[in-house]
Amino acid sequence: MKNKIISVLLGAATMAMAEISLTPDHENALYEVGETASVTIVCDKSAKVTVSNDDGVVTMHELMAGNNTIPFTGGEPGFWWFKGETDGESAMCGIGFSPEKMSKQVAEPEDFDEFWQNAQAEAAKIPLDPQLEELPEFSTADFKAYRISFANINNTRIYGFLTVPNGDGPYPVYCSVPGAGPNDVRPLQKHNDKVITLVMNVFPFPLPATQEAANKLIYEVNYPGNVGYWQLDSDKLEDFFFYRAILGIDRAFTYVANHPKADKKHMVYWGSSQGGAMGVVMAALNPNLTAMVVNVPSDYSKIFIRSYAKDGNPLISKMPYFAGANFAERVKIPFMASAGMIDTGCTPTQITQFFNQIPGEKLIRYVPAMGHDFDPQYEEMTAEFIDKYLFD
Fold it and tell me: What does pTM read for this prediction?
């Protein structure tokens, strides 16, 4: 797999509503710096179009009903969103200029490696104490399924699900961390008869067997009134939600990599959004991983800022230790990512800034009409990627 960028059309490079649509003149919505993009806006009534990027509003346009065209010249590498609104209806399209030339915006601390090595060393002082509970309802004649947990920092545990084929092995390992919320409440269902699978949740408690019950446990019992379960008030770095999760999942991955039935040669990771961010971190910190594919990955540095950028908390200075771009520079395994060009949460800017720092074999797919979602064609590519690096 050569280092390259793919941009594809999802239906059309528009997100059409009943009364308004926006379409860039390049099907892939990508342009060179200095090139002028032309975005056509078709609206049944007068409309307002806002052009913005991650830093805020750039320009606003008032349009009459009919076919309109807005030219836009990209003076530097980056992405911009066009949002059209008319009578309560809205539509978006995204365009990008020379994304491969975008640079990271977060400086790397000189002691970045030392910081994480020390954190791992402190975590390693805690006996791992793996605890397995067999789950007959998910087991078959070909494999056994387990709920699994490990001791972690702050006198907590971290929980997940493991499946192990019944044969002698050795077997490849397929692992994952889910997106935000109660997404994985059961073992992974992929190649269970011929691979070891491990999915680790980020919470310090086990999730019940239904998403409804898990959702209640997360948002009503443990983190009531919290916009995001990670946004906790604390003056201790060790209390940052994903600091604890990173260290716990790192130890869990090392455990499964050294499972007696693991082949020690194939350990592939998949994750989306929250799980995508964890993947970038694990690819940098855990040497057992051999390939990785992520979908619209988040960045834990953004969440760190939300948690500590208030009341002058000095911990905000630690933000660069959680920046995806700084982890990405240490990714040496085959890596594939996707970015939705109208994703305003995990933005194409944020994803590209870390992706460009990866020195090894990599591929990114930009999907013009996609927000924080899944592209069917990328899902096909993901399945092929996983199979290739599990079994080749």
Answer: 0.93
